[in-house]
């Protein structure tokens, strides 16, 4: 099996394991009990037999001469076991919220938010400092966003229009996964990630053993911290977190900050209403944010109102349709 086929098989297996309740439950238990770290093994612990059966039926485990072992596709997924665990935990959390509190959405977004645990998971307030407890509270959601970014960056980075740009500022760039992918594509580019202090701390820790001198982290709040010089400002999966007035203000701030010819780039999932009806348990991870996703025309209109000239839009299909909406500042 060549590498491309192996990766395709791993993606298909991941979709299966995260997409149905028995498989997600079995995978979550296996990761929690470090089952995969004990393979190959002649047999699971008795209390793990149900998980092994389900995982073997889905193609994650195989029975061999030495006992149970991970399949090739599962072995590929386990190369990033921490990422997989983060995806599993958030999918389970989001699915519980949709099942328990989904009817509250018919009463309005605020009613759902007040009940759903998903929104308490993203403790942005705790990320404003770098004390041990603050890092501990921030690490789980940062790990989830990092796991998503690792899956998204190979597809999205080639679509981000940075040709001719020398200094990128990524607002809310988390641990720098997307910025790192963009630096690999544009050798003359440098990048600064502006994010909350605990997030930047975790980003530097991620890069500790393979430092990238062209990537720096600037801890702060994008609304208050002075922005470094840049000729491109990127908002990737950030603006849906902000109310319309705040999102528009950030786009205006980016437009004012750039020199003539500079670019503002928004990369976001589109409106849920414009997507095919999602299926499978893993859809819950996006359903909880569905009310906040916007059509790309919304961002384009806001950019035009900020005095920017739109560039041709680009789309990519991942778990949903991602839209790359870019605009340039006129001379």
Question: What would CATH call the homologous superfamily of the largest domain?
Answer: Vaccinia Virus protein VP39
The CATH architecture of the largest domain is 3-Layer(aba) Sandwich
Class of secondary structure makeup: alpha/beta
The dominant shape is: globular
What is the terminal separation in angstroms?
52 Å
What's the rounded overall pLDDT mean? 94
Here the CATH topology of the largest domain equals: Rossmann fold
Give the low-confidence spans. Answer: none
Largest sheet features = 8 strands, mixed
Number of strands: 10
Q: Kindly state the percentage of residues in helix.
A: 40-55%
Number of helical elements: 13
Taken as a percent bin, the fraction of beta residues is 15-25%
Q: H/E element string?
A: HHHEEHHHHHEHEHEEHEHHEEE
Top CATH class of the largest domain: Alpha Beta
Task: Give Rg in angstroms.
Answer: 21 Å
Description:
This protein is α/β, with parallel strands linked by helices and 331 residues long. The chain has 2 domains: 77 residues; 169 residues, 3-Layer(aba) Sandwich (Rossmann fold), CATH 3.40.50. Helices cover 45% and strands 16% of the residues. It contains 13 helices and 10 strands. The strands form 2 sheets. Strands 3, 4, 5, 6, 7, 8, 9 and 10 form an 8-stranded mixed β-sheet that branches. A hairpin with a 2-residue loop joins β1 and β2. α2 packs across α3, α5 crosses α8 and α11 crosses α13. The protein starts with a helix and ends with a strand. 41% of the residues are buried. The mean pLDDT is 94.
